[in-house]
Amino acid sequence: MSRAIFIPLAAFVLGLFMNTEPTAAASLGRYEVFGVEEGDMLKMRAGPGTGFNVIVGLPNGTALRVHSCEQTGGTRWCRVSLDRARSLKGYVSWAYLRDR
Fold this sequence. Notes:
Layout: H1 3-17, E1 29-33, E2 42-45, E3 54-58, E4 63-72, E5 75-82, E6 89-93, E7 97-99
């Protein structure tokens, strides 16, 4: 295979397996936890996936700052910090966030 074809093809295939592109800057900013069932909490995790340790549970209405997001499998995970305790950082599912 020609080197001119192989390198772009390899980069494309590698990009399919490493789909961790950050979202556009327009989606970043201040959000709140929303849509968690009554009596439950959104789990802030140490990394972008359910296999990572839970740092803390967040009830509906918790104010967060979204720093970046990435797609992992079928879930969009966002790196966030608490609005009132910015040193507490972790990852939450984008599905449970809404604009403030």
